[in-house]
Each structure stands twice: as structure tokens, then as C-alpha cells.
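pinned: reference chain
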Amino acid sequence: MELNLINLAPFLFKQALQFKNMKQLIAAFICCFITINLFSQVPDVKPHLYKKDVYFLASDELEGRKTGAQGNLVAARYIAESFRALGLESPEGIEDYYQKITFDNTKPAETAMLTLRDTTLKHGDQVLFMGGKEDHMTEELVFIDQGWINDTINHYEGVDLNGKIAVALFGVPGSTDPRDGFRGMTDKKRWAEENGAVGLIEIYSGGFPWNIIKRFFNREQTLINDSKSPSNPDFQHILSDYKFTSELASLKDGEKIEVVLESSGVQIESTFSPNVVGWLEGSDPDMKDEYIILSAHFDHVGLDTRGNNEDKIFNGARDNAVGTSAILAAARHFSENRPKRSILFLAFTAEEIGLLGSDYYVDHPVKPLDKAIFNMNIDGAGYNDTTRVTVLGYERVGVKEIFDEATAAVGLTAYGDTAPEQGLFDRSDNVNFAKVGIPAPTYSLGFTAFDAEINKYYHKTSDNPDNLNYEYILKYVKSYIYTAREIANRKEAPKWQEGDKYEAAYNKLYNMP
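pinned: its C-alpha cells
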């Protein structure tokens, strides 16, 4: 029923008789006007369309939407055609709403080992063969520090690597973040090969325990094959927990050391999966050059190939068909109610295998990043409190009052991160935008802790569309669109809380003093 003063008049007159003085009456009227205003601004989300999207994206036929698999590509096409039907533009340089990404699916070597002096290190134990063809070689070892090149450093200068195996310390100069070390591996391999090496051994010293590193890399995995920094798949690349302490000391003393590499070979097959990108130009001539980003990942983890359950499909309704469907609902709303600023709609692939889709996008943006004033990402493991919305970055991105207003308008309450021990802010696609300076929270379903209710569905085959609370989720989606609208329309752009770890990147991106 439409709310207006005529409808409310009998109720207000009856309530007015209960007040003892004019101040109380005025306060009551003000409260009523605020309530009316809030309700009138709540975006309309059509339940049948929203549920249709969730049920399709989380259907058995899509087989868990694993990056590069057929179900993942079908989901991408569904999103793209939804964008087309709503009249969103495919941005310049993007064909048919697809930002195509080439991935390498790698299978680890079945057998491999490294021998030097009297020490033999086996793959999956103290070394990991990260790349390389089937081979058996004996070559000289050469130490190259961290094996890095930039404007002030060239660890290859004056070093003879022709036909030899380089050994380097893991990581990037000036950084203690192990993620930077892993990102830098492709460049290190290329530089070592360009300088004549036939292999590279990196001595691991990152912050993640070696047992976790072994479990992650000694399995089939999918990585971006970025054409801007191609590497030779035949090049031998090894990550080692063995510290080479005595060997490095001997190399410093000028002693020649040979290393033997034996490997059955790492198998690589290429595939592709796209980020899906849609653009809606803003309505205000003075503000439409700026834009907000509404994002969610649409991939999930595929099929359960090792479990004994009859149900082997990870449908991923909560993670993240709910979020993908929310940005489609936002696209429907804003295509009919254009905000002042423009909106970039981004559906990411490859979040589940390391935030790769968003990482690729930030390296290859289709619109200038310094014109993006905000990224509101959706991701999550599920919910255990249907009275709240959990905003990762709630007090950090300068729009707390909008989060509060938007959730209150639908009868919910906004809260910040209630599981800080999980490091959730830095575990979803928003962090790749935060690192370049863009205020970027993740807008999640309500949870109080990673408890049994969350773990009942998180990355489980039980995460299906038929066991969702749609009454609650539709409120959540409305509050998401409400928040996006307010930020897209208001004159002042959000900014990081003073002292936030991403504030320096913000100042650099937007040329702040």
C-alpha cells in the first residue's frame, strides 16, 4: 500500500490525542515524516525476477560454476545477456560484455626431485616443482639475490647465467607481504630465462606456513596466463623450503656447485573465463564522468570429486549466486532510475582460486580507476542473523551513515566485521580495489561469527537455492541498492578513514595533498 498523509491521517489524529503537549506532538509528526520518507525511497526488487536469477545460477546444470568449466561460461553468458536486455553498454574495448582472461590449468609433476652434494629433496616434501617440462639435467648453481629488476635494482647485472640454474630468495625487495612474492614469480621466471638461465629455484621465506603452501600448490590449480608477461612452460621453476645455507656460503666463497633436477613434468592446459562488464552512464552532465563499481563474483568451486556424498555439486547459492543476482537486481533498478554518477557493473570470475578475476581487472581497467569513487562488493559465506547486514569496512570507507540509513529503511541493522580473526576484508575481490586506493567495502549477509550455521553451507554441497530465506535476502538486496543510489547521487565522494592502511594509496590515486 502506498504510504501518504491521507492514509495515515486517521492514525495520526488518534495518536495525537495521547500526547500531553505540543512538543511531543511535533516530535511524533517528525518521526512519521522520516518513516514515510524512508519507506518511499526503498528500491523495488521484484521477488520473482531475483529468485529466477538465483535458481538459475545455483542450478545443478551449471555444476558449480568452476572457473573455465562449461557451467561457468553459461553463467557468464546469462549475466551478459541480462546486461544487454537492460540496455547496459558493453564498454569500449570489451566485446559482447566479456573481458576475456586466459588461464593455465596446471597439474603437478607426478615425480620430481632436486639433488645437490649429498642432499636429495623430493617434490611435495621440501621442494615444489612449480613449472617445467619432463627433464633430467645437471647444471651449475648461481645465486642472484632476490632475482629482481626495477628502476634502482638489477640483480642480474654482471651475472653469467647462460645454461645455469639461478637460485634466488623468495619475495620482492621492500615488501614483507608473501602475496607480493607469489605475484612476482612470473616476472622472476621471465627475467631469469631472458638472462640465459635454464631454471630458477626460489628459497621460500614467506609468512604462510610451508605445509599450507605445499597443500595449495601441489594440486591441480588455475592461474592467469597474462600476455603482458608470458613465460615459457618448459622452464624449470622450483620453490624450496630448504634454505641452502651451506650452499650459499660456498657460492660466496667462489666454490662451484652443481644441482641435478629430475622431473616427470608439470602439465599445462589453457582455458578462458571472462569477467562480465556492463556500463550505465549517469544522468548528471557534471558528475557522470565519475562512477561507482557494483561487483560480485559469479564463479564457485565446481564438483566434489573426492567426497562420498551422493550430491557432488557445489551449487554456491550463498557464495555467490545471491551476490551476482543482487547486482542484476541493481542493474534493473538503475536502468530505469539513472543516478547522477555512472555505474560500472562487474561480475568477476576466478574469485575462488585467488581473487584472480578482480586482480586482472585492476591491472586492465576498462575505465580510469581514478574516476571510480567507490566499489561496493558482495561476497560471503552465508548468514546466521537475519536482522543485520555485515559490512566489511563499515567504519573505514566514510559512508557509515548511509549504511545505517539504508539498512534501517528495510528493517535491518548494519554492523561491522564480527569475525576479525578471519581477515575477511582482505579475502574478497574488494581488496584489489582497496590496494589501489578505491574505498571498497564488502556488503555481506548478516553473520555474528563463523559458527556451525555458517559452516553448514560454506563450500558445501548443501548450499542450494531452495534453503535460502528470501524474505530476509530481498531486504538485504534492497538495502544494497539503496546504499549504491545514495553514494552515486551525493556530491561528496567517499574516502578512507584517516589512518587507514589504504589511505596512502587513496591519496596517490586521486592526487590528494
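why pinned: Residues 60 and 207 are 38 Å apart (CA to CA). The longest strand covers residues 267-280.
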